[in-house]
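Exercise: predict the fold of this chain.
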Amino acid sequence: MGGIAFAVLVAVSAAITGSPPKLTDSTAKIVKYIADHQGELRWSAYIAGIGTIGAFWWAGGVWRTLRRAEGGSPMLAVTAVLGLVFGATLAALSGILLATVAIPGVGTAMGAGGVRFFYTLGNTLIGGTGIGILVFTGAFSAVILRTGMLPRLVGWFGVLVAIVWIPGAALMSTSRDAVFYLAFVGFVLFLLWVLAVSITMLRTRASAVASTA
């Protein structure tokens, strides 16, 4: 349930901010976007922050599931949970940065150059988030494919997400439009994968409870 809440809330937080400008867009366009979406950006950070609570709650279920699948030797379980926590933390920091710039009076006080700097920094942190997603989905999917604890199709989906984020994480070091769009695609695929894994975990849990009743 934590994973489902996380995916839904993060999707909502992203949707309410509209279409953000690319890093290659003009400073004037970035400043206008921040000014026109002040309330949305602040609420987006809050909603995503609540979603992060769901992610950390889900991390406990992920740890338990992977540890059992690995037979009590939780090497990949540790790797996956650390990747999830790392990615969720950087994503939350990115949202907080943009929300701070969107506070009335703050953006105008730092000037157009300052707004562009913090907007770029926020996007760079999303690139770092991609590293966490890559580690998390890669480790989780490796256990799925090796043990069959969940449908292997879900595992292969996770491998696809990890592959997309290999170049997508380069958002931390480049402003190319192609990488910007690739990171967006990776973000959408990741949320869909989280939903798929969470629902499958719930169904597997329910089946196990029913079989022991």
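Check your answer against the key: The CA atoms of residues 130 and 187 lie 8 Å apart.
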